[in-house]
Fold these 2 entries.
Entry 1:
Amino acid sequence: MSEQILFKVTVDGITIEVPAGTTILQAARQIGGEVAPPAMCYYSKLKGSGGKCRTCLVEVSKGSEKDPRPMPKLVASCRTTVMDGMEVKNITSEKVIDARAGVVEFLLLNHPLDCPICDQAGECHLQDLSFEHGKAKTRFEFQKRTFKKHDLGENIQLHMTRCILCYRCVFTADQLTNKRVHGILDRGDHAEIATHIEKSLDNEFIGNVIDVCPVGALTDKTFRFKNRVWFLKPMDAHRDCPTCNGRVTLWNRGDEVYRVTARKDEWGEIEDTPDGKPGWICNTCRFDKKDAKDWVIEGPRAISRASVISQGHYAGNVGTTIPTETFKAVNGGRTPHLLMDIHDESEVNQQNIHLGQIQGPSHGDTFNKIENAS
Amino acid sequence: MQALTNKAQAVNRKPMTFWERLYLINIIKGMMITFSHMFKKQPTIRYPEEKREFSPVFRGLHVLNRDEEGRERCTACGLCAVACPAEAITMEAAERVEGEENLYREEKYAAKYEINMLRCIFCGLCEDACPKDAIYLSETFAPANFTRKGFIYGKPDLLIPNPKTEAGAFAEAKGVEA
């Protein structure tokens, strides 16, 4: 192969050399940190994604070395490739910040803002985006567009009201599975993700649409309403899976597996496996292996300190290994006199109930049954 | 030794005089202070019979609120639990099924909701965190109890009476407007 042509590009005053054909977004991500524009629809592991949500808009203040004129309008950085000597302004540009606030307002026009109910809360890209780039108030004063929630297959719940039409799930289904049965129906305000005539999706890899969904539109039904993500313990684990690579993140409570997802990198995208392929996981791993015995646990997953998920997680092995009790040893074999064992009295997190093992969300009678049985 | 400040006073080691040794004057002085308090205004009140007025920002026992139609407002979003500095709040959520729309306001609700009053420090951060106006700190104390078990408050203890079916109890629980 001939020598790769490297282009010099400056994003927010930081210069980096990238191969020709790289998009501005990818170049900014190589610099990392705040310089990287947010992306709701672009997904580097999916071909053809991007260009729809407009959150990654940047200002190009100098087109290239040969043609230094600035680009007349803000450009979508996920779809614009770099030129030699290009200068890009992201967070240093007033125009970009203003435009992004506008985009967030548009994305939230029809979004129900039901974060207290939504299972995605805490790891939702739209939450992060509106927190970082949005305004506190909306000027929208009409009825929000609503849809009935429905099931895509038996394990995936679709809340169309929360959807921002990023098309990531459509690309996933298109590129990962042999036959796509869901897509976007209707146009404009009526556009919705749907399966044709309620056809269910049954494909070994269709569960990945949950991971690519930037909002809570596609959620895991086996985890539905079980717990909030920030009360769970993300653990890296793997298993020998015949269909996929089997490298996942387990979301545990105690030793109970509440949820299984693919491992995600700092951009919220699925991590690559050591052989360089995206680490998509199969439905069996995701929905059916909810027993800690099925997995080889590697250790706690590193979570960004800025994330609410990192609350209550401490450095080292805290929470992953049971500390040795020293009381008996130093008190001549005497056990401490406990005034109350919380599990005798508390009805929450009972030791004989395994919520992670229930297939769907729990209902009132789930708890009543347990109460009657005990 | 050099004194650090000039405030130090040397101890008076002079032997006491006869009158001082009698302690009579000092006792009378002390008793005068004691008896003078009998004529002052009492700072204490007789608690169970008499009650002190609460400050409008008083933070007492928690209540789980209902809306006008008597439906529970809590959706078990976990924000109170994550805001709680004492980690006193725990909950388990469930999905509302058809026919329960008159009981719960949203499609998800707290099937179990517990506050460990032994842990609670009544800081009111749960109230601040709640996006659904579901938890409030009322103007009552957490009552004393002989066992620790009595301090694990579940939903039956915390939930405000239904304004539709138990209007009297609801009004009583709500108390007088501050």
Entry 2:
Amino acid sequence: MKRKLRDLPPALLMLVPSLGLLTVWVIYPLIKAIDYGHKKCDISSRNCRDVGWDRYFSVFQSTQFQDSLIVSLKFTLMTVPIGLVLGIGLAVLADKHLKGIGIFRTIFSSTVATSVAVASLVWFVLLQPSRGILADMLSDWFPVLKNPGLLNDSGTALPAVALSSIWASLGFTFIIIMAGLQSVPRDLYESAFVDGAGSFRRFTNVTLPMLTPSILFVSVVLTTRALQSYGEIDLLTQGGPQATKATTNIPYLIYGNNSVIHNDIGTKSAAAVLLFLLCLAFAALQFRGFGKRVHYGN
Amino acid sequence: MATDAVRGARKVGRYSLLVFVAVVVLFPIYAVLLQALKSGPDAFDHPRSLLPVDLTLDTIRAAWTEGDLGHLLMNSLFVSSVVTVGVIVTSLLAAYAFAFLNFPLKGATFALFLATMLVPAEVTVVINQRTADSLGWMNSYQGLIVPSLASTFGVFLVRQVFLQIPKELREAASLDGVGHMRFLYEVAAPLSRPTLGALGLFTFLGTWNAYLWPSQVINDDEHRTIQIGLNSLKTPNDISKFNLLTGGLVVAALPIFIMLVVFQRQLVRGLTAGAVKG
């Protein structure tokens, strides 16, 4: 006990920087957002009045939130499964001792070097209807590329953003799955081989079970990123095409310059808290769903 | 003999597949790079041409001037460097308290730290923008830097390494009259150098690449980071300037590509720290 108290002053001094910053920039805004979520404020957002906690329900049920929720869920479904399968595929392909394999591994991880802004604008350039190289090369087969352009058509805008996002995350997924593959003990493959398992059986019965921790991790990270993606929407479509708001997901509804709730801090806070709950629910769901199947060895 | 032929054919097959996939993955980068290296009219006349002919740095030079890219890069470099140093210092200090000191409510404090890791920026930025506004930090370097100076992830990572350092080492040092700060500076920090390297790399990349917070706290040219500033080169309606964006992209992406090639091992170590058991 005495020791505990003797350590207290230095411990406080050492914790104060982190604790202070986290309090002001993470804990306080979280509590404040929860509080604002049940208030109605005027446009200056200085004068607010309490409208009760069921305001969260009314925000949740509002058309704007429901529409953006559907966009967010669609976007998650478009990006996460495909991203995972492609990442696993690349990792399995590169997990061989071949001459020069290092170059391929570097290439496959290369998109990890692109930021949201760089990756999105690369695809903005490629998909540009009048000048973009993809539009130029493929528009004979897909006229939508030229008119009105993938990003300007309500039906294709979200898949186009998803394409850019899948590409941008590929390097990250590849690196994690690759590391997972390399930690699979080689003798497991050998005994499976001796038992007469073909390469497909070895993949489904040895590789996949041993990869579950990495897959769970990647899947949680990719899902969270998909639910929170803001930069790619802001840069590629601004939540549009405006008529249908086909790419206004929840983050864009909260932060976008074109958003209808741009000046309404109460609704913004409520939507932000609902987004937080959605992310938590998805993470919990994946941990539970995978939980029984995750194989940590030993 | 037959098996040799089969093996050879398999090898060829696998290499072809590897090359094909590599081309697909690299295509977007290659296409943009090539467009940036061609002069305006030529790229306009032959956008289909993926051959590296008639290369010039004109587009990149024009983008550099038009977009004020030097200024944007310096802003990003300054903000990312300060945040990186800050995060390493605050993480070292807090991790030391959690690993080597005993104090009341230690478990609860650590749990609070971990809990903040769950809160995404997307939730807090609404209010943080107001806080920055009332502090007069909109359009300022403080506004860009200070909110990112503490990292729960960093505290957690460094604490894990500190826990591996034998307690006896600390006890022996304290018998010799070595204080906490000196022990941290001379023993604990140097022993955790690889982890600090990975943490530094990640913090730098994360800050350099950040989009949401800078876009909400900065709206003047003076303090813009490169990620936000690229947007001003995006002029879809002015076809004559469209190529400038490709030049800007090359300038923005190049430093990070170089950095990642140099620090590839630290990057993989850091990325996989959370994913693989061990």
